[in-house]
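Two proteins follow. First one:
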Amino acid sequence: MLVYFLKRLAGAIPLILIITALTFVIVRLAPGDPTKMFISPNTPPEDREIIRRNLGLDKPLHIQYFIWLKNFILKGDLGYSLVNGRPVLDSILERIPATLILMGASYLLSVIIAFPLGIFSALKPYSFFDYFLTFFSFVGLSMPPFWLALMVIWLFSLKFPIFPPMGMGILVDAPFWDSVVDLTWHLALPAFVLTIRNLAAWTRYIRSSLIEVSGQNYIRTAWSKGLGEYSVLTVHALRNALIPFITVLALSIPEILAGAFIVEQIFAWPGMGRLGMEAVFHRDYTILMGDILISSLLVVFSNIAADILCAYIDPRIRLQGKS
């Protein structure tokens, strides 16, 4: 297992370098001079050139990239914000917990609800319940996150003021459980918006995987032993059906991060997505690059974790990795 992990980790390093290089070039080639965002328009050209030289913006693009990459690898330094002068890494580390809470709640709700719905739908294919879930899945997949976010704010915060429309809502100097309840109350709407799309897709995927696996020979053997329908599907078929589903879970992370950029902005959720949107609006290139880098690392390492989990569930994957 260790050899398999090291191989996957070694394969991820070139991918991260390619992602960071392409992102760095695209961000730096965007129109506009970032120094104009925080200096006076009346600043003399020679002073503006001194500022650009101090920021390293006068160097060729590839030199800027290698300096940025070297500082990150050797020092963990992603530079300083062009807007407020704070270290980029500190700004991102402050926002990561909020994003992980939002993504974790969405993942947990999606898995907890999708598993029983998908299993029951596979037990009763082409029933009324199955057709209802199919309809729900198409509706869930068709709704854009930004539209759904605006609709739930209108319904549950304005029309019926049940949930707060924005913010994270952690109480200051309050008992622990009061802060947890307040956080959960503020988390309800943004987590719901991120959950709907995943729930719709994952329910159908679990159903399809279970139905496909149920046609294998070892499943027919389980049937011939006289086992019940629920036992065959959940005990014998579910483990093999989980292997492609785990891959789907990992591949959903980029989509959830992209959705978080929109949802966090609409709900004023103080996470990495909102930080990235603010960096785009202010042309804060250093913050934007750091945000994209950390997001890329989360995606890459989540895929590695999914591969390792698949290899743990199915030893054949480990054997293929050794060959």
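Second one, unrelated to the first:
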Amino acid sequence: MYLWFLIGFAVLSAITFILYGADKSKAKRGKWRIAEKVLLGFSFFGGAVGGVLAMLIFRHKTRHWYFWAVNLLGLVWQIGLVIFLAAAF
């Protein structure tokens, strides 16, 4: 069962990574940007690994403390859930 959560987190992380990359690209070109609440929402609700990796690789949103906070809190609860489910099954 927890395998489905891992797959879900992997898919959401990939989407989150792509969203951060797209937002960075749009920022460089002066185009319409992806809303911060969308980036933060995807990070917190399953895509924290992708969010953290994107922040480090694209060097995007790294100066905003709340992006670090949301991504790290998301990472903690997502890892905690996987550990809990792995131990339960």
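SUMMARY FIELD: The two ends are 8 Å apart (CA to CA). Helices lie at 2-29, 36-44, 48-58, 65-88.
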